[in-house]
Amino acid sequence: MSARTALIRREAMLRARQGGWVIGAGLFAALGALTPLAIGNDAEVLKAAGPGLLWIILGLSVFLGVEGLFEDDLRSGVMEQLVLSPVSLAEAMLIKLAVAWVFLLVPLLVAAPMLLLAYGGSLLGVLAILLASPGLVFTAGTVGALASGQRRGAPLLVFCALPLIIPALVFGPQAGEAGLIPFLILGAYSLQAIAICPFLTSAAIRLQLN
Amino acid sequence: MAFEMSLSCDDVCVQRAGKDVLAGVSLSLAPGEAVMLRGPNGSGKTSMLRAVAGLASFDGEIVFSRGVQVLDPAFIRAHEIHMVSPEGGLSPRLTVRETARFLGAFYGRDPGESLGQLGLEKQGHLRVGDLSTGQRRRLSLLRLLISPRALWLLDEPFAALDEEGKEIVRALIDIHRARGGLVMLALHDREALPSAKTLFVEAA
Q1: Which of A202, B23, B111, B113 counts the highest number of beta carbons within 10 A?
Q2: Which UniProt keywords apply (chain A) (predicted)?
Q3: Which of A17, A72, A83 sits opposite B55 (nearest CB)?
């Protein structure tokens, strides 16, 4: 087993036990189920407003789901050990973010179709969530790494990262209504995040170590 | 196997948050040598170890060499340096056995009997977070046993350990030095290693 496989296995065990994904997925399901109560039972209004609200909830759930992704490793000195290893820190951060994404995504993919159907929205929205989720998780993770040295990191995280998820908020709810374009843009949003965020995250962690 | 690496530090000044915390440390270590950094709390012993590990920014020169050949510091830091800090570098949510398995896989070695050597075979099922401070200290030495690397940076390695634990650390260091390994220790208490050089450091 290579060092990278070992890191992936360790990260999966830690994610499963740390449980941030439960908070993220639980919040998504709970807020998604409560929203119609607040909007009222007019099917037309729900259909028009539902997908947009669902995307805001999605963003919020992702932020709270990745909270605490780096704190344990920073506090316990694991990051130092990663620096003193053949695996580059950016690669280790890519593994961390990717595993966090998988753990958040799987329960979301169960909850999202049900909520979309309940709102009368298009099931293509699930594909949009699938496409946009790496971008959301990686962006939130990067800001989380920047905030990880601060106490009360979570509110700061949500506040700083909200503007960065605007592409997902604008194009996500249009999935199924505006042809191919929203999907392409959401895919591009995620690809650029995957390309950039591991490096930004590792730079942020190095700053905390120094 | 034997190590042939040497380390020399020339007028190293370590900075933290843009300020010098430690000024003008010069030392050299030949294969098999050990140095104890001594000084009161806050004198920059840990900062010096972190500078050698490439974790703190510094002025001056830190050179790794084999004979007359100068080695690439990035390669050395990825493959030939172990740092054992009081934080331990261990995930509190993994069990002792899972930690051993992870470290073995991470360094591409078989963890074998190393837990037994540290006196931790009975604690295998416990989570690292549930261990006592001394047991966690012992477990943090595991990487030294699993993966042979030329330079050990040990930050207060005797702290929180009982007599048996301290004896294990001394034995590990002796074996490592006999193989030509280098050791840098930060110590502030009375613990000492016979036959190790002493360097007093002072805050800048």
Answers
A1: A202
A2: Cell inner membrane, Cell membrane, Cytochrome c-type biogenesis, Membrane, Transmembrane, Transmembrane helix, Transport
A3: A83
Contact (CB<8Å) B93/A86:
no
- How sure is the predictor about A202, in pLDDT bands with cuts at 50, 70 and 90? very high
Residue type (1 letter), A186: L
**Neighboring chain A residues of B54 at a CB cutoff of 8 Å:** 83-84
Do residues A200 and A148 make contact, with C-beta atoms less than 8 angstroms apart?
no
Place of tokens 């220790």: B185
pLDDT tens-place string over residues A63-88:
888 888 888 889 899 999 999 998 99
Query: What residue spans define the domains of chain A?
Result: 3-209
Which chain B residues touch A if contact means CB-CB below 8 Å? 16, 53-57, 77-79, 81-83, 85, 87-94, 98, 102, 105-108, 143
Burial of B145 (0-12, 13-18, 19+ CB in 10 A): buried
CA pair distance A60, A65, nearest whole angstrom: 8
Q: Of A84, A78, A1, A66, which Cα lies nearest the Cα of A27?
A: A66
- Cross-chain Cβ contact B108/A2 below 8 Å: yes
Hey, are the CB atoms on B55 and A18 less than 8 Å from each other? no
**Residues found in chain B:** 204
> For A180, phi and psi rounded to 5 degrees?
-80, -25
Among chain B residues, the shortest Cα distance to A12 is held by B94
Å from B141 to nearest chain A CA?
Answer: 13
Predicted ipTM?
0.89
**What separation in angstroms does the CA of B82 have from each of A76, A159, A188, B103, B107?**
16, 38, 40, 12, 11
Residue A153 — pLDDT band, cuts 50, 70, 90?
Answer: low
CA distance B74 to chain A (A): 9
**Residue A96 main-chain phi, psi, to 5 deg:** -60, -50
